[in-house]
From TrEMBL:
Protein name (record): Iron-containing redox enzyme family protein
PANTHER family: 4-AMINOBENZOATE SYNTHASE, PQQC-LIKE PROTEIN
One Pfam family cited in the UniProt record for this chain: Haem_oxygenas_2
Membrane-spanning residues: none
UniProt keywords, alphabetically: Oxidoreductase
Length: 392
């Protein structure tokens, strides 16, 4: 008998509705403590005939050892046969549903390395079939993304100059599109409680995984770099105060707002998945280590301004916003310091000893800015703001 993990599969609308379910009275998480679930954070088809798309097939094949899974060989063969077609539809034809399917698949693959150690999905972490699929998707994805940021990168000589590269990071982080400004103004001045709930739940998946992305960056390059990342992790963990850790603060905020942590991402578009996947594409590939550090640096520079807009909106809606939503207040206080420290204690010392790493750091930073911008566009679309912008 197959031991397929039991997860109820739902479409994007159903997932969003589930995400907005209020915490049952008496069941709210008042400690913020979370323990890894044996069930993975993505839906698993319960029968082989339900495994139709790339992401569904990968999820099904991850659910158990293949000799116990009905039709596993047939599904695996179909997956390998159809993968080039799906990648072409996604990255050549730019079909939104194909892009969503590809990024859902990458999300599932990265979650394997972050799942409960006793979950059956972990048995496949280094399986050749999974690594082959992951490598093909990552290669096609980066070949699609890199040409789009070339004009935004510093020159080779600028990237090798510590002060010039740090200045480039600051300049890029401070740039705002019309959509960026409109979205932040919307949060600050107009968003309703329900719209803020959607915003917070959209952020949930990455907020819970950010410390994992940070942990992957702690693999050794130099003592100076490791020390600064460890200092950042100390802040993420609440500086030794359990209930001040950022993930616990986020969980406590959900409880105070009457929301449940989503079992699966609530995203119905490929852009949020891509932004999330970028951290783990870099973090789980040693060859992308410097890109990963560049990608992690950018949010420390642009997030304080974003969080100030969030806090202003929350204070407009809640008289006790600082109590309910300490998570965002905490981030304003710590990230102002983080940004300058990532430049002076991560970017600058790397360039001083390894100038060739500069362009890699810049690529990671530029890709993160693109991901942030696309995420803002996704949220602006959810809130009906794009029509307003187009008429201005």
């Amino acid at each position: 008998m197959s031991r397929i993990l039991s997860n109820q599969q739902s479409d994007g609308l159903s997932a969003t509705r589930c995400a907005f379910t209020k915490c049952p009275e008496g069941n709210a998480n008042t400690s913020g403590e979370r323990v890894a679930d044996l069930k993975p954070s993505f839906p698993i088809p319960q029968h082989p005939e339900e495994a139709l798309t790339l992401s569904q097939r990968v999820a099904y094949l991850l659910s158990d050892v293949h000799h116990l899974l009905p039709e596993a060989t047939t599904i695996l063969n179909a997956l390998h046969c159809d993968l080039p077609v799906t990648l072409h539809s996604a990255f050549d034809d730019e079909e939104p549903m194909a892009l969503l399917d590809v990024h859902k698949t990458l999300y599932e693959i990265y979650e394997v390395s972050l799942s409960h150690p006793l979950s059956p999905v972990c048995l496949h972490e280094h399986s050749p079939w999974l690594l082959t699929i992951r490598n093909e998707i990552e290669t096609a994805w980066l070949n699609y993304e890199l040409p789009r940021i070339q004009k935004k990168l510093p020159s080779e000589s600028e990237a090798k100059h510590p002060e010039l590269l740090c200045a480039w990071f600051i300049e890029q982080a401070q740039r705002e599109s019309d959509i960026d400004r409109c979205f932040l103004n919307f949060l600050r001045n107009q968003a309703s409680i329900e719209q803020f709930n959607l915003f917070i739940l959209s952020d949930a998946t990455l907020n819970y995984r950010f410390s994992d992305a940070l942990a992957l960056a702690q693999l050794h390059f130099s003592e100076t770099v490791k020390a600064e990342i460890a200092n950042n992790m100390w802040d993420e963990c609440g500086r030794g105060v359990a209930n001040k850790s950022h993930t616990r603060l986020f969980t406590l905020m959900l409880a105070s707002l009457g929301l449940q942590q989503p079992k699966f991402p609530i995203w119905e578009d490929w852009h949020p998945y891509a932004g999330h996947n970028l951290y783990f594409c870099f973090g789980l590939n040693r060859k992308h280590y410097f890109k990963g550090l560049g990608s992690l640096t950018m949010p420390e520079l642009f997030d304080p301004n974003r969080n100030r807009a969030v806090v202003a909106g929350l204070e407009r809606l809640y008289f006790d916003a600082r109590v309910k939503c300490e998570y965002f207040y905490n981030h304003i206080e710590v990230e102002e310091e983080h940004g300058s420290h990532w430049l002076s204690r991560v970017i600058l010392p790397i360039i001083e000893v390894q100038p060739e790493a500069g362009i890699e750091l810049a690529i990671g930073g530029a890709l993160r800015m693109e991901a942030m911008r696309h995420y803002n566009e996704y949220l602006a679309l959810q809130f009906g703001l794009l029509k307003k912008i187009s008429t201005v």
